[in-house]
Design a protein that fits this description.
Layout lengths: L1 H16 L4 E8 L10 E7 L2 E9 L5 H18 L4 E6 L4 H9 L3 E4 L4 E5 L2 E5 L6 H9 L3 H12 L7 H8 L3 H13 L3 E4 L2 E4 L2 H10 L6 E7 L4 H12 L8 E3 L1 H8 L8 E5 L1 H10 L3 E2 L6 E6 L8 E2 L7 E2 L1 H9 L2 H15 L5
Parallel strand pairs: 3-4, 4-5, 12-14
Antiparallel strand pairs: 1-2, 2-3, 5-6, 6-7, 8-9, 10-13, 10-14, 11-12, 15-16
Helix pairs in contact: 2-3, 5-6, 5-7, 6-7, 9-11, 10-12, 10-13, 12-13
Length: about 350
């Protein structure tokens, strides 16, 4: 922690020096001895009046860790420095973590440059758009294919409590994958643990974050043209989708799935996910011909078949990607897609607060 505390102290010094009315008297860091409850105390003067900022520094700025640190800070103030201002410092604080600090009337500063301090006659607030590479990498790892299989299972029934082994079996992933997802959800306070197991406490926040960092499934986009239209196309497609999945898998996706789940507006193009055998069957049944432009059928040939574990059948033989997957795909499909995504979310993805 010592190098981090040094960086935190320097960041606090630089922030305070930017405010002319503040005179920095001294920044005192915790010694190597027993933990006294805070890591940094900044002694300052504001218009001739002495004041102190007591700071707790943590390496992890996820909401669960922030909440514990804020309690620690508040406890310290009650017993040691009631007239001081508490400040929480971490490498990075998400908007959710910053909101927690605001709820507890605790100032904050992170090493990315976000800050909010309110004391005496001073108010400092600064927001930056950047996120550290580690934070982005950790968040995206939560949405990688195997982890996403766990999230899809949980989002079907957010209030259902899961044991780790049960969730691993249902999602067809290892216990290690479930444990990693569990830790990520708990750290961000998107999930909680009850006597019965792990459940989603804030599915909306999880879905928002997934949407904002969504990367479409890895695969090959293939463009085709078919002369089939209307009911003839639908009947041929549904025959393929309803056939034995052991001989190939395919599903309506994106706008085509939304048509069955929560109709918003038709498009001139039909969308599918498929594996190799599923593509071959679609190719034959729909009389597809490859084109470089002017396509009216798009098939994404998936590298990972895990997405097919979460399909739904809103009408007989109309096998579609789940509401969650359809929502994510629509959200990155341009302006019309975002409108359709918002409509689908209102219709199919609302949960009690």
């Amino acid at each position: 922690m010592k190098p981090l505390e040094n960086r935190a102290a320097e960041a606090l010094r630089l922030l305070l020096q930017q405010v002319p009315v503040i005179k920095l008297v001294d920044i005192e860091q915790e010694s190597q001895g027993p933990d006294r409850g805070v890591d940094i105390v900044a002694h300052i003067e504001v218009s001739g009046r002495r004041h102190a900022l007591v700071c707790e520094v943590k390496a992890n700025g996820q909401p669960r860790h922030v909440r514990m640190a804020l309690l620690q800070l508040r406890n310290y103030l009650v017993h040691h420095a009631q007239d001081a201002t508490p400040v929480f410092i971490a490498p990075y604080l998400s908007p959710e973590a910053q909101a927690l600090c605001g709820e507890q009337a605790v100032g904050f500063l992170d090493l990315e440059g976000n800050a909010r301090l309110l004391f005496d006659t001073v108010f400092i607030e600064r927001q930056v758009a950047s996120r550290p590479v580690v934070e982005r990498r950790e968040l995206r790892s939560l949405f990688k294919p195997k982890s996403a299989q766990v999230l899809r299972v949980m989002l079907r029934e957010p209030s259902r409590a899961w044991r780790v082994t049960e969730l691993a079996e249902m999602a067809d992933v290892s216990l290690g994958h479930v444990s990693n997802v569990r830790a990520g959800l708990l750290d961000r306070e998107w999930a909680q643990v009850s006597d019965s197991g792990l459940f989603l406490s804030d599915p909306d926040a999880l879905l928002d974050a997934w949407r904002d960092d969504y990367e479409p499934p890895a695969g090959k986009r293939m463009n085709f043209y078919t002369t089939l239209h209307g009911s003839a196309f639908e009947e041929a497609a549904r025959r393929v989708l309803n056939s034995d999945r052991k001989t190939g898998q395919a599903a309506f996706a994106s706008f085509s799935a939304a048509h069955w789940l929560a109709p918003y507006g038709r498009t001139g193009t039909q969308y599918f996910y498929a594996d190799d055998a599923g593509l071959e069957r679609l190719h034959t049944a729909l009389k597809l011909s490859s084109v470089s432009k002017g396509e009216n059928v798009v098939v994404n040939l998936l590298k990972d078949p895990g997405l097919f574990r979460d399909t739904v059948e809103p009408a007989p033989s109309a096998i579609c990607t789940s509401p969650v997957q359809t929502y994510l795909d629509l959200a990155v499909a341009g302006e019309r897609g975002r409108e359709a995504a918002d409509h689908l979310r209102r219709e199919k993805l609302t949960w009690p607060k």
